[in-house]
User: Fold these one by one.
Assistant:
Number 1:
Amino acid sequence: MTRRIVRMAGDGIGPEIMTAAGRVLDAAAEKFRLDLSFQDCLFGGVAVDETGTPFPADTESACKAADAVLLGAVGGPQYDSLPPEQRPEKGLLAMRKALGVYANIRPVRNIPALAGRTAFRDGHLDGVDIVVIRELTGGIYFGAKDRGDDWATDECRYTTSEIERIVRRAGDMARQRKGRVTSVDKSNVLMTSKLWREVTTRVMAEEYPDVTLDHMLVDAMAMKLISSPADFDVIVTENMFGDILTDEASMLVGSIGVLPSASMGDDGPGVFEPIHGSAPDIAGQGKANPIGMIASIAMMLETGLGEPETAAAITAAIDAAIEAGDVTGDLGGALSTDAAADAIARRV
């Protein structure tokens, strides 16, 4: 059976990492005899340049018909002066809504070969293996917005059903792991967080009595994620808190350039992308780290296409390349984007 994959390289370093990572996917597909087809579509700033909108109708149709979507990166300083509805980042919100992907899944695991590149003492990161599940389609990013001459407002809104479905994702994930969920909110201040805590407590008690639940305020979590990262298993939180905490968590690994993510809904294709941005300052220079994109391909194969053996082979190849020092400059190596990807492809 042919699996259809839409590729949206996007902006900045997006095209470089998409092309480089594609060679790893080609090697894996050949080894494991996967039948894959690809369609390249415009998205983000490059789509604004050509069509006037960051998420064109043709791209939306292609994504909805696909089995999985790969995304590189979006945005750049040249788009900062555009009207809000034309900004590349608006394409992300529109895509998530159109595809119904509401759960952003970001794994963070200790990679021993990178421990020396972190700011932590020896042994501090031992046992770190976290999955952050971030709600993706509600909260302040999607709320009503208004602006006057000397004031501005952003509405933060959540419904019971939005919270229930993301909490169930966390409960299901915890059952596959260590059986613990930490829910992060700001219930001492925010009404949306009060609702979040109430709904989370009820859903976990009624539907996941075998999973341990604890609650943590977001400011305390920002501290504990650094001071005691090995204490956590599955972390679930709302949109903005998750956005901030997952970037913080990337420092547990040593570089934001190595972490993948998956955005999933109940039906339709998932969207798989590295958590880093478009890095326009190094675009076109062959300096971009392709590992986050390659790891996102591994997540796509396992989570989106049901190919765990292929995904495991790519993950093992990534770890072996890092251990050997066959990496880009941000990880202390001397390889270009393409050469670093080729080093992983050979190991696959």
Number 2:
Amino acid sequence: MQSIFIAILSIFVCFSFGFLLDGSTNSYSQFRKWGGGTNGSIEFEFKTDQPNGLLLYTDDGGTYDFFEIKLVEGALRLRYNLGGGAQIITVGRDLNDGHWHRVRVQRHEDRTYLTVDGISQMKTSRGKEFNFGRYSTNSDVYVGGMPTWYNTKLTLLALPSVIFEPRFVGAVRNLIYADTEGGMPRRQETRPKDQRVSCFMISHGLCDVH
């Protein structure tokens, strides 16, 4: 009975306060497609003490468009392509301080904004068409790392180098975006049968809500 209670408590804590990614080979979490369109947004919070790591990746199934969010020496870097060439936006520093940080990517046609803890930077994409791929063929959203099966199917990645990025070690919570075309943003849950993540337990002081 005690073990059942602990399991239920763990599930509740994970659902309410986020999940842990330990950086191991199979450490990642998979979420439904982002219905980004031309004016979509995606946001989440993270906590880590590591300066480098892949936080989030999604693409158009291997053609041009992609969004990659990662920590680079404690700064948050968004690299993306909407068909007119890759763009990079970097915001923040010392974000590996063990505190929660809020990230938001917002698109408005050719403009893309990256906001971290209320501080924003913007870049403008080249080209004439700014839709994020096609919803029917876009990839799922991956958090913390990429599935190892991509190692033998790099042609399915618009940014093959993502497979070599260091995996994120830390906690992620409140992943919010529209998972249908033209839908409203909502909190996302991991794909069914996803057993690659586990919760930070309260005893480690990492399931707080500060």
Number 3:
Amino acid sequence: MMNTIILQKEKLYTGNLLLVNAGFPVRYLCEEGLVPADTRFPHILIRREAANVLQQVIKKIGCLDEIIPVSGYRSAGEQSNIYSNSLNENGKSFTEKFVALPKHSEHHTGLAIDLGLKKDTVDFICPDFPYYGICDEFRKAAVQYGFIERYRKNKEKITGIAHEPWHFRYVGYPHSEIISENNLSLEEYIEYIRDFQHDRKPLQIQKDGKRIEIYYVPFDASEAVSVSIPEQAVYQVSGNNIDGFIVTLWRHVK
């Protein structure tokens, strides 16, 4: 038995897999469902699901006293101030590499978090988060929980942002694992998933007795598109912020 779900145009601009960059601004700033990434820093907020997962990673590797959140959700006004201040303090070249324009920052989604090693002084724009020790333990563990290192080295021409070892983005599992294992940027992953359309063979992954199917649904209507989902199936739908939806479906393997 199948159920039909209706995907309205507005849903293109919501979900964990939104691509936000210089070419694709956020349509809706995430102003609801925000909670502290760490209760010790109540002013640093992210989406509840991302916050819960972040705390699971921190608990798993025992880094509560070593890694701290530096920046989470930002309003358009906050991003504008950060951009202007960086221009004044660091110059145009630095700012264009490390600070996105308002409405073009992942921090508007509530799904991005900048992390840093706990120190007496932490740089707000470029916190220290090296590729060794507890930071690298976090980086590796986070992939299994749905986080990716968003701005990797050698992806600058694709992302439009310089290498940022401290910036993590929640995309959900198994997307995080696919992205990491294939050394993809989120831009490349969004393009890759387009090859697995809903009316063809989906991308399939076997994991822990379950089969995960991922497929792309192009949005080519003015109002809505319909998608058939197996009855009682567990699934998630995310817009890509461009031209379609990504459906993730979990099936039990008999």
